[in-house]
Fold:
Amino acid sequence: MSTPSRQPTYRMPSSRVGLADLIGPLTEIELRYAPSTLFVCGQLRLPIRHPRVSIVGTRNPSDEGVRMATDLSSTLARQGAIIVSGLARGIDTAAHKSAIAAGGKTVAVLGTPLSRTYPRENAPLQTEIMKNHLAVSQFSDSHTTTGKDFVLRDRTMALIGDVSIIVESGDTGGSLYQGWEAIRLGRPLFIHSQEFRKPGLDWPHQMAKYGAVEFKEPDDLLDFLPSPSLNLATLALGTA
Amino acid sequence: MPRLRLEQLEFASYLAYTPRPQDAAGRFAKDFTLTMKDGKAAGTPPTSIPTQIADHLRNEWASLVIFKPFLDPTTVLVPVPRSSIRGKGDLWVPEQIAKELVRVGLGRRVAPLLVRTETIPKAARSVASERPTASDHYRTMAVQRDLGEVAKITLVDDVVTTGGTCLGSANRLVEEYPDAPIRAFAVVRTQSIPATFQRLNDPVAGTITLQQNGWCLRRP
Structure:
């Protein structure tokens, strides 16, 4: 991993919040890998409204992977979903950019402090997200980034998303950490159908054994998305 | 395809939802159901959905006469297994519901007697033609007996769609507990046709019946 750029980004005041401020109350299972503190910068009101769809995948995608990430992100963003991704090269970048182009909202969950950018080429995208969307990091500005931070970030992304979608990944991709965490949390995890047909690729079949679901088109996900009006604070029997 | 000994099962459910809601009440019901399935806490103060459900059942018990054969202090509650193999510590909502029902006196004890031995497609995440049959569920489950007395069983599930999971589960249990009456209780029943959805709070009791084509028919 090359060093994250120190010179990125639009300097905006960031706030320090708890994860519950970001996504609402947490259960015991959710608390297991939840960061105690988050730093946020951007315009989205907290807690982030639903539905929150996390779209992730490889840094070196195929043309079909990019097409699917773009189609998913723009389709779901137009239907009111908040697109959550990790600002990485490849699928993540396609997901963020498509959501913005579709007039939707996006959340970048960084593996670096907010004051840095990785990869460097995404500094303009991070700036745009910090100005008009939301960037989130569990690392303070004084933190020195290591490879492990991206694994921690992947678990946090699974927590933030109402559903997680892996568009494309190799057998050792970082997205797999997010997939396994989504399974542990009992959240819907969707895997693009092309991944099940790639010779020698094991992870889709392993995750399917534990409940991941194959999807072909964005419409396949609609039944599993909560409505934009969902408010966990007022969701109780007898309040309908 | 294994021949199933039980071809009909009594079931009851407390709430209803539709996956493609058409109005605000339908959206609330769907949000409530998805929040339960995700194991999230909700309300103020934040309370798990299984806790909310058990407390409401207890409070409304006098008017829920149709549930009396399903939930009482003598019944052993058996959580229905997930459709996939479960990792240690993974969320298992039917078990949480069963524990909460016992807490409020609507079950004698929770007995996780059934385990999934092989993953099959999730009923709620499958198109109708690919939905697993009751036989598929039966074939991919096993019974783990425990040492406790089991005189009367109610299977507990979070959501019932056609009822194939419950009927497959009941057929596994009846092999080990042939003298115990077996019923099923689900918190929510799915109403696949949006226009048939009326309200979230919609208690019913009915039957799940095996059809000749292998699929189940749930009524209502």
Notes: The radius of gyration of chain A is 17 Å.
